[in-house]
Specification:
The chain has helices spanning about 15-30, 40-45, 65-75, 90-100, 110-140, 155-165, 180-190, 210-220, 235-240, 255-265, 290-295, 305-310, 325-340, 350-360, 365-380, 400-410, 415-435, 440-445, 450-460, and strands spanning about 10, 35, 55, 80-85, 105, 170-175, 200-205, 220, 230-235, 245, 270, 280, 285-290, 310-315, 345-350, 385. With about 475 residues, it is of the alpha/beta class. About 45% of the residues lie in helices and about 10% in strands. It folds into 4 domains: about 10-140, Response regulator (Rossmann fold); about 155-315, P-loop containing nucleotide triphosphate hydrolases (Rossmann fold, 3-Layer(aba) Sandwich), CATH 3.40.50; about 320-395, Orthogonal Bundle (Helicase, Ruva Protein, domain 3); about 405-460. It has a 5-stranded parallel sheet with strand order 2-1-3-4-5, sandwiched between helices. A 5-stranded parallel sheet has the order 7-10-13-6-14. A two-stranded antiparallel sheet has the order 8-9. It is found in: Cytoplasm. One of its GO terms (molecular function) is ATP binding.
């Protein structure tokens, strides 16, 4: 089964027996362990940036555990700290949590699994924080391209093209499915150009009738048609010196296509009903979700206008062709809508991220945005889980079915294989537990796996058994790490 990276743990305790015992427990789980019997030395060791979790005793000479906790948090606030004490009281626990501790363990340990499980949960929380920080850093980098978000090779190519064409005055044609962000690309080009201080005017050409579209684009004079009660400037005049974005250019009627061609050729517009043209200096960026080349061949789009528009073409890939961008986009929308709703929603669970990444996203980025907004509104937890997503996301794919193979066919091979294996392993563990009446020990024996390792697998794949009931830890909902496959 899949191997996951083990957290590096620092254990600090002046009791050599406890120090050795905790070290052995954690090493059996595969964690690299640094064991130190002096609190002052422990503070120095905690500065190591590779340390993920610290387990320390409260009662130690030279420097108390509480002082050590505060010192570690001052130096490494991202490190998760677990306190150990033989004198547990409510006051001690509250003080430790206020000082930044993740949890505390009472000595002597009633169950050694409690130690490994608590460390595992702390490590998962640390991993989630690391993953969130990495996504936020990636989102910061994308700010140079306005609201365009992506780290896939396809989007990097788009960013490079945007950077190049922004400094020219050439007409740009943006092609892509609905919801891929064509207007965002147009805005990125405009605001990186020398026209950035001039107007950016966007118009949806498919939303208006022919008469209204011509009036909107070119303006009209009083009495030119019913309802024209006065002279009106068109959007081309309004965009003078700047950029006009003609969305869904493929839906423009033939007569309007002729007038658009004149603007591109002569740099002038004639208001509806007017005799004299008006000069305009406007850069045209057009966009469409249809194949203009085919429309041209079918006689639905003027050939001369097509070549005028198609000077530089930017093809926006659908979201299903760049699944590695899903976590970055999901995190961006999570922050956006959590802020708008004034809710503390800080992350997305591995299962939910897996479901998001597997989806084909026929509505592209716009659909993903709607799904995350809905999840933020509905969730009562700090981490979005599968149950917060729409019903279609909540049924795990069947790894051995043709249905799942089809659902993963849009992903790169390595990522599709990893997701399919995760689905199989989760289903295998669930079936094994069901066959053994939800008894973890019996299921572990049937699987031929050591009980502690079997419990770790159940945790990893978020499958719960009857005898697997660790006590609820603080902020438990945060302790989920977005899957590595999606990065």
């Amino acid at each position: 089964m899949n191997q996951v990276k083990r957290a590096k743990v620092l254990v600090v305790d002046d009791d050599s027996v406890v120090l050795k015992a905790v070290t052995q427990i954690l090493q059996r789980e595969g964690h690299p362990v640094v064991a130190i019997d002096d609190a002052v030395e422990g503070l120095t060791a905690a500065k190591d940036p590779t340390i993920d979790v610290v387990v320390l005793d409260i009662k130690m000479p030279n420097l108390s555990g509480m002082d050590l906790l505060r010192g570690i948090k001052a130096e490494r606030p991202d490190v998760e700290v677990i306190m150990m004490t033989a004198f547990a009281t409510v006051e001690t626990a509250v003080e430790a949590v206020k000082a930044g501790a993740y949890d505390y363990l009472t000595k002597p340990f009633e169950n050694i699994d409690e130690v490994s499980l608590t460390v595992a949960k702390a490590a998962e929380r640390k991993a989630l924080k690391d993953r969130t920080r990495a996504l936020e850093e990636a989102l910061t980098v994308r700010s140079q391209f306005e609201d365009l978000i992506g780290q896939s090779p396809q989007m990097r190519s788009v960013f490079k093209l945007v950077e190049t064409v922004s400094h020219s005055t050439a007409t740009v044609l943006i092609q892509g499915e609905s919801g891929t962000g064509k207007e965002l690309v147009a805005r990125a080009i405009h605001y990186r150009s020398s026209r950035k201080d001039k107007p950016f005017v966007a118009v949806n050409c498919s939303a208006l009738t022919e008469t209204l579209l011509e009036s909107e684009l070119f303006g009209h004079v009083k009495g030119s048609f019913t309802g024209a009660t006065g002279n009106k400037k068109g959007l081309f005049e309004a965009a003078d010196g700047g950029t006009i974005f003609l969305d869904e250019i493929g839906d423009v009627p033939p007569a309007t296509q002729v007038r658009l061609l004149r603007v591109l050729q002569e740099g002038e517009v004639k208001r509806v009903g007017a005799n004299e043209p008006v000069k305009v200096d406007v850069r045209v960026i057009a966009a469409t979700h249809v194949d203009l080349s085919r429309a041209k061949e079918q006689g639905k789009f003027r050939e001369d206008l097509f070549y005028r528009l198609n000077v530089i073409t930017i093809d926006l890939p659908p979201l299903r062709d760049r699944p590695q961008d899903v976590p970055l986009l999901a995190h961006h929308f999570l922050k956006l809508y959590a802020s708008k709703a004034d809710k503390k929603v800080t992350g997305i669970s591995p299962r939910a991220m897996e479901a998001l990444t597997c989806n084909r996203w026929t509505g592209n980025v716009r659909e993903l945005e709607n799904v995350i907004e809905r999840a933020v509104v509905l969730t009562s937890n700090e981490v979005i889980d599968v149950e917060d997503l729409p019903p279609g996301f909540q049924s795990a794919p069947q790894a051995d079915s043709a249905v799942e193979v089809f659902s993963l066919a849009h992903l790169p091979y390595a990522q599709a294989k990893r997701l399919a294996m995760r689905a199989f392993e989760r289903r295998y563990l669930s079936a094994l537990l069901e066959k053994n009446n939800q008894n973890v020990s019996s299921a572990a024996r049937a699987a031929g796996v050591d009980r502690s390792n079997f419990r770790r697998l159940l945790k990893q794949y978020e499958v719960a058994g009857r005898s697997m009931k660790p006590r609820v830890l603080k902020e438990d909902s945060e302790a989920a790490e977005p899957m590595e496959a999606a990065s």
